[in-house]
Amino acid sequence: ALEQLTGALFQRPPLISAVKRQLRVRTIYEVKLLDYDKERGMGIYWVSCEAGTYVRTMCVHLGLILGVGGQMQELRRVSMWINTER
User: Fold this and answer.
1) Number of H-type helices and E-type strands within the chain
2) Which end of the chain has fewer CB atoms < 10 Å from its terminal CB, N or C?
3) What is the rounded distance in angstroms from the CA atom of residue 84 to the CA atom of residue 86?
4) 14 lies in which domain range?
5) Of 1, 2, 59, 51, which Cα lies nearest the Cα of 25?
6) What is the CATH number for 27?
7) Which residues of 70-82 are buried (b: 16+ CB within 10 A; e: fewer)?
């Protein structure tokens, strides 16, 4: 299902957002599943994406694709522009 979330995707900002809720195209370059806990129904995945991508929206879309619902529990930015997590 993660493969379906790569490439150019349409996204609309969340209801509570500092920007207008216009439909936008954002590019997802790569997605990797790092871990999945079947008992808890939780997964960890890594995303390489264009600036302005709504990762929370990606989680909701992944749940819709899988037919189970989805939400984001935590977001960690490990790289942004030239800064990286150490």
Assistant:
1) 1, 5
2) C
3) 6
4) 2-84
5) 51
6) 3.30.2350.10
7) beeeeeeeeeeee
19 token code pair: 């920007």
Residue type at position 2: L
Torsion sign (Cα): 44, 58, 47, 20: negative
How far is residue 23's CA from residue 26's CA, in Å, rounded to a whole number?
A: 10
What is the number of structural domains in the chain? 1
pLDDT band at 84; cut points 50, 70, 90: low
pTM summary value? 0.78
58 burial (CB, 10 Å; 0-12 / 13-18 / 19+) is buried
- pLDDT class of 4 with cuts at 50, 70, 90: very high
